[in-house]
Write a structure and sequence with these properties.
Elements (H helix, E strand, L loop, with lengths): L2 E4 L6 H10 L7 E5 L9 H8 L5 E4 L2 H6 L3 H4 L5 H6 L2 H12 L3 H7 L4 H12 L5 E5 L2 E5 L18 H5 L14 E4 L16 E2 L4 E3 L10 E5 L4 E5 L3
Parallel strand pairs: 1-2, 2-3, 5-6, 6-8
Antiparallel strand pairs: 1-9, 4-5, 7-8, 9-10
Length: 236
């Protein structure tokens, strides 16, 4: 029985499956997937539908899931000349922004689904939590996709707005919690000063960064919270 966290799969299904095999993921384990399952890579929807089968996989929202939910529900509706005329400027802006961050691969996959499966995917995305608080082996962890914008030590997590949790990169030199580890994805470790490229970064201020850049040709990282053991999956 172990607890794991991974993030930023970005449609790389083979990496996901290889990681599950690498950690020997089983029914007694718990896995938190810390956002950005979809976009860029070809099989984000396939990963989501695989995740749905596991009651012990807990998804946390990333900025890519948040952006997808601004677009995908409208694509479930039948498009006619009249309905296209009714699309407002906000929807057009959302879909252009979504394409700009790599959403085309997800749209391609989504449009091949049956109407029922489209609805299942949307309902699943809507269930993603904005953060998780976990206690493992006497250690406390806060898991959030990007960071904690406008952080204050005594501020409750449920008061943070989505944009404060999903988009802003943290300051890795700051101490956010004295008595908890903060686990984030979003920023590939190759872009963090002092971190080893494409490796999980654990610094001395209780911050753990786990995006190992799989969508940039790096690896998929996963950390076991019980002992802070990192694992990596790379497809040759």
């Amino acid at each position: 029985m172990a607890t794991y966290v991974m993030s930023d799969l970005h449609g790389n299904y083979e990496f996901f499956i290889k990681m599950l095999e690498t950690i020997g993921f089983c029914d007694d384990d718990t896995l938190y997937v810390n956002g950005d399952v979809i976009d860029r890579g070809p099989n984000g929807i396939k990963i989501l539908m695989h995740m749905m089968m596991y009651p012990n996989i807990f998804p946390i929202c990333g900025n890519h899931e948040y952006a997808a939910l601004e677009v995908l529900p409208s694509l479930c509706e039948e498009m006619t000349k009249e309905s296209i005329k009714d699309l407002d400027d906000n929807f057009v802006r959302n879909i252009l922004e979504y394409l700009n961050i790599g959403g085309q691969t997800t749209l391609d996959e989504f449009n091949k689904l049956s109407n029922d499966d489209k609805q299942y995917v949307i309902e699943y995305l809507e269930e993603f939590d904005m953060y998780a608080q976990v206690n493992v082996g006497g250690k406390q962890f806060v898991i959030v996709h990007a960071g904690l914008l406008n952080f204050m030590p005594d501020r409750k997590l449920d008061t943070y707005a989505p944009f404060e949790l999903l988009f802003k990169r943290p300051d890795y030199e700051d101490v956010y919690f004295q008595d908890k580890y903060l686990i984030t994805g979003h920023t590939p470790t190759r872009f963090i000063d002092g971190a080893e490229a494409d490796k999980i970064y654990i610094n001395n201020n209780n911050h753990i960064a786990i995006d190992c850049g799989v969508s940039f040709g790096g690896t998929l990282g996963c950390i076991r919270l019980d002992d802070l053991q990192p694992f990596y999956a790379k497809i040759d």
